[in-house]
Amino acid sequence: MNAECPVSKKCGGCSWIGKSYEEQLAQKTRNLKKLLSPFCRIESVIAMEEPLHYRNKVHAVFGEDRKHNVISGIYEAGSHRIVPVDGCLLENEKADQIIVSIRGLLKSFKIRPYNEDTGYGLLRHVLVRVGHATGQIMVVLVLASPVMPSKNNFVKALLKLHPEISTVVVNVNNRSTSMVLGDKEQVIYGKGYIEDILCGKTFRISPKSFYQVNPMQTEKLYAKAMEYAALTGRETVIDAYCGTGTIGLIASDQAAQVIGVELNADAVRDAVNNAKRNGVKNIRFYKNDAGRFLLEMAEQQAKADVLFLDPPRSGSSEEFLRAVSVMKPDRIVYISCNPQTLVRDLKILAKYGYRARKGVGVDMFPWTECMEAVVLLSQ
Ligand code: SAH
Predict the structure, then answer these.
(1) 3-state class percentages of the chain: helix first, strand second, coil last, to nearest 5
(2) At the top level of CATH, which class does the domain 57-198 belong to?
């Protein structure tokens, strides 16, 4: 399968658009084998069946062209020039349509897009998140100031065009920063969050919480992680870097107890909610640095049988891995979005007596070079 996009050069989002999907998969398997074969056997990359429009989180920046027409799209790679985009091969199509509709409504509501150079105007970005299994849709309007004229009528007009929208949130970002979302939020329609279902469990997604962008492949990733963990129902399990608790909650049915640790307070709040929402009683979440938390557990001679870790791109920390060597969990399932830091951490774990047993890549990001991998280690 091949694909084309008229703005791919300027945008840079789909850096592998020139390769067929089959070629991409073969190259991803090759790259992963090259990096990980010194450690263990690597299965072929798990492909996406229909590798298009998989991103359930879509972001558009708003601005004006030279003739003062409203445009929306993405920043040109490495700059703050806006490349107008109405549709993208990677993005959820409904989300793209909603963004185009919002652009069309602005004029009649006399809402100007924000101008980064002059500081005039109101609408900076629109973020749309879609629950893959539930079909729920969240629209976040990122404004430069908290006052949105006739916001109720705006929502009414938007819902008339897209009755499928579940919630609309105004987010205020009045700083000059490359962060899309600011701190202040006001829900102007619906509940302020959406839900999605992964591996039979329901998860809440707030405007700011981390949630994997490709839910179909995420299910395969988590299923692989569970297969590698081979839980029997008797284990104490740690879910480190747990985000909104997805992996720990999915593991909870097959474990005696689960402990989740995560640094981001919003994510921990979502995780606690998610446990309640799914009636899971054998899980506890802690807001802490994963390394510090694990060291404290090790000092108290607490034991764990299985450790899941899913760190950010920078990988795990020396401190964390040292704590692992003290706690000596039986099995470690390492989920990584950056094979480079994965290799670095596998070398450290090898010094502590952990041998990688098998690994696999999951293609979470077709048409890009990004890689996701799962590796099982044991003593
Ligand atoms: N396992 C989750 C989230 C993985 S993303 C999922 O699959 O959805 C990585 C997470 O690590 C993020 O939620 C981030 O906030 C968290 N994180 C980053 N640094 C951390 C640290 N030092 N200690 C604990 N959590 C951290």
Answers:
(1) 30, 25, 40
(2) mainly beta
CA of 111 to the centre of ligand 1 (A): 37
Q: Where are the domains of the chain?
A: 8-51+214-378, 57-198
d(CA 366, CA 80): 25
Nearest alpha carbon, ligand 1 atom 6: 243
Q: Six-digit token pair at 170?
A: 């105004």
> What are 113's strand-pairing partners?
123
Per DSSP, what are the bridge partners of residue 82?
Answer: 75
- pTM, full prediction: 0.93
Are 73 and 63 a contacting pair, CB within 8 Å?
no
What does the pLDDT look like over 107-143, one tens digit per residue?
A: 999 999 999 889 899 999 999 999 999 999 999 999 9
First to last CA, the chain: 42
Ramachandran region of residue 198, left (φ > 0), alpha (ψ -120 to 50) or beta?
Answer: beta
Find the residues whose C-beta lies inside 6 A of ligand 1.
210, 212, 241-243, 246-247, 261-264, 267, 289-290, 310, 312
Q: Rounded distance, CA 308 to CA 329, Å?
A: 10
More confident residue, 364 or 266: 364
- Specify the CATH number for 8-51+214-378; select among 3.40.50.150, 3.40.50.11260, 3.40.50.1000, 3.40.50.300: 3.40.50.150
